[in-house]
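EI: anyone free to look at a 293-residue chain?
SC: sure, send it
EI:
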Amino acid sequence: MTDSESARVRAFTDALGLPGLQDVHTHFLPPRVMAKVRAQFDAAGPLIGRAWPLHYRADDDVLVETLRSFGVRRFTALPYAHKPDMAEFLNDWAAGFAARVPEAAVCGTFFPEPGVTAYVTSRTESVQVWKVHVQVGAFTVTDPLLDDAWGVVAEAGTPVVLHAGSGPVPTEHTGPDPVAALLRRHPRLRLVIAHAGAPEYAEFLALAETFERVALDTTMAFTPFFDEMGGAYPSELLPRLRDLGLAGKVHLGSDFPHIPYPYADQVDALARLELGEEWLRAVCWDNTVAVLG
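SC: here you go
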């Protein structure tokens, strides 16, 4: 990270008259888990599918200070379980991280396993954002083991950042159809679809338009790196994306620190959409404040 990177981000927020940014999609993980995640990116693992040179690689204290230097006033940890008996370890760690870092929302994750409803219920009062990653976790959102837990989350109204789109590499569990089935079962779920649902942009946009509490995040979408990987966001969808953002249902996300370019590239990509300053202020600040406080 350089002073010029911070200056780029702060020039963006200053031009909009914002006090900073609210980023709903960042990652902080226990050191051993973070090391394994970085190794997957370094090796361009099977769920990544291409070279992914990480731009940021440091310990938590440095990464937190980096976000602060950009003026990010609220962010997340978003741990995600990929096997049984892992979620509660991650949830304990994320709770401790949020206790140490005032800007961090209390995050949690869950996995289809016996006891999932009990631990989700026990954390309902404390968790502010859940994270579910069906591509890495290799499960479907409609797994019967999760049904009661989804009901608890829907009743609480806690947002769930859900990676269900088929990017960067599709699996049998990704795509909009399982999510549509889940929402028919639990229509009050407050889902934030990661990466704007890439590459199934149109289908996930339609779900956000249809279900009152479904939103999108901008994570990596619209950047040149993502355009090369899965195709540019369809221009014919932009008017609908503008309406959705002004309705409070598009949130800034970045995937920091797991990104192969400077953080400022994400906000620059949003500006290039030319959807207006009101839309940018909503997406980068107001909409997430309304959900996280």
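EI: The first helix runs from residue 3 to 16.
SC: 👍
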